[in-house]
Specification:
The protein has a domain of 174 residues. Helix content is 40%, strand content 14%. The protein contains 15 helices and seven strands. A three-stranded mixed β-sheet has the order 1-2-3. The longest helix has 18 residues. The two termini are 26 Å apart. The relative contact order is 0.12. Bound molecules: heme C (5 copies).
């Protein structure tokens, strides 16, 4: 279900891309049209590069989600030092001929820049170039951002709220897939042994956590009360920082350390046990 809706949204964006070459994604999504509304129209119109909608646009109403997401590793999927370095090493390793085919860089960009999946070769080539030259501003909106996870169709965003309030910027549609672990599977599963980025989904599927119904979201997107958009009603909302193995608080939850002391005649024997409480390997990745 998660895969279906995610794939559908990516294909739709892709189709829009194909039928309207030369337009920016915001234009294709109809967000700069006459009736295309609110906050940052000027900024959208000014965006000259072929950029999908920057997450900061969503932040004008979804301030809390934006401020949390901004600190997440999803926000850095194209700009972290490690990514830039390994992406460049990968391109060097495949040789000149393969390097010239923009499709080769999709071996990394399909997950690290998911909106590119159905973009034309020129856009893929440009984005790959901006990664290597660290033109981070031009990469806004291509990383694992709001639209990558919530885009459903032209100016329609899907999410877990069954009856979302109307707003002047976009239509909303409910999808139960946001509560399911399979929503994360697309990117958090190995595609090939050469790219061992994240295999947590495969581990999780056979774990005890999965059997008792503990989804990725239940551990990585803590539930609190608040409004989903500024001025919206009080609801259950979910943390968007996505803490993982680089978060001290998460690591403390990852293992249970047991110490048992026994006196044996004249000496003290201490047994330490470490129990992995996560449904995947510690550390993974
Ligand atoms: C199937 C999706 C997928 C593909 C394809 C993929 N990655 Fe990743 N990558 C991920 C995920 C998910 C993580 C986060 C894993 C974690 O932190 O446990 C990640 C993490 C990383 C990291 C560590 C985090 C960071 O930014 O410092 C690097 C570096 C990286 N990937 C580089 C690459 C390179 C280079 C390629 C292409 C050769 C690639 N990835 C292809 C999904 C993917
Ligand atoms: C003009 C303000 C505004 C802007 C800009 C805005 N939203 Fe929203 N959005 C709302 C409101 C209001 C709701 C309904 C909140 C509620 O019912 O609690 C909403 C709901 C949502 C939902 C929940 C849908 C559901 O059914 O679960 C998602 C997802 C969403 N927006 C994504 C986005 C994304 C992505 C962007 C940027 C491309 C964005 N929004 C920009 C005001 C806005
Ligand atoms: C469109 C692809 C995509 C989807 C969907 C996705 N992720 Fe990620 N995720 C990534 C990439 C790429 C990274 C690595 C970013 C980086 O550090 O370079 C990552 C990193 C992470 C990290 C940080 C890992 C660390 O080492 O700190 C966590 C936690 C995480 N994702 C959880 C989730 C959860 C939970 C879901 C489902 C709700 C999810 N992700 C859905 C692509 C994705
Ligand atoms: C890696 C995927 C991913 C990214 C990136 C992401 N979201 Fe979400 N979002 C989710 C998931 C999954 C849920 C549902 C969590 C649940 O119900 O357990 C959600 C829920 C929501 C909701 C409904 C209220 C709530 O908190 O449950 C809104 C609104 C929303 N996201 C807006 C945004 C905005 C705005 C951005 C960008 C700043 C963003 N999201 C980035 C995956 C993502
Ligand atoms: C029972 C709670 C729990 C569930 C369920 C869970 N995780 Fe985790 N996860 C953790 C904890 C705690 C850590 C930090 C320790 C570590 O790195 O393994 C973590 C770490 C991670 C990391 C970073 C790995 C690393 O070593 O950097 C990623 C990525 C991740 N989880 C994604 C997921 C995804 C995707 C799912 C669902 C398929 C999932 N997790 C299910 C608790 C959970």
């Amino acid at each position: 279900m998660g895969l279906v809706s995610l794939t559908a949204s990516v294909i739709l964006i892709g189709l829009l891309w194909k039928i309207a070459p030369g337009k920016t994604l915001p234009e294709m999504l109809g967000l700069t049209g006459a009736e295309g509304v609110v906050a940052s129209r000027a900024e959208l119109a000014a965006g000259s590069h072929n950029s999908p909608l920057p997450s900061a646009q969503c932040g004008s109403c979804h301030q809390q989600h934006y401020n949390q997401w901004r600190r997440s590793f999803h926000a850095r999927s194209l700009t972290s030092d490690d990514f830039v370095r390994t992406f460049s090493q990968y391109l060097q390793s495949i040789g000149e001929q393969a390097r010239e085919d923009p499709q080769s860089s999709m071996a990394c960009l399909s997950c690290h820049a998911p909106l590119l999946k159905h973009a034309g070769p020129e856009t893929i080539r440009q984005v790959g170039g901006f990664v290597l030259t660290r033109e981070t501003k031009k990469l806004d909106g291509f990383e694992v951002g709001c639209v990558a996870c919530h885009g459903a169709a032209s100016r329609v965003f899907s999410g877990p709220i069954e009856k979302p309030q109307d707003n002047p910027f976009h239509l909303s549609t409910f999808s139960p897939s946001y509560k399911e672990a399979s929503f994360c599977a697309d990117c958090h599963t190995w595609t090939s042994p050469e790219i061992p980025c994240s295999n947590v989904y495969t581990d999780w599927k056979i774990s005890r956590a999965a059997k008792r119904g503990a989804t990725c979201q239940s551990c990585h997107m803590a539930e609190t009360s608040g409004s989903a958009a500024d001025g919206g009603p009080e609801r259950k909302i979910h943390d968007h920082v996505f803490p993982g193995g680089r978060s001290a608080a998460m690591l403390r939850k990852a293992v249970e350390l047991g110490l048992k002391a026994d006196f044996r005649k004249d000496r003290l024997e201490v047994t330490a046990t470490i129990r992995n409480l996560t449904p995947h390997r510690v550390p993974d990745g």
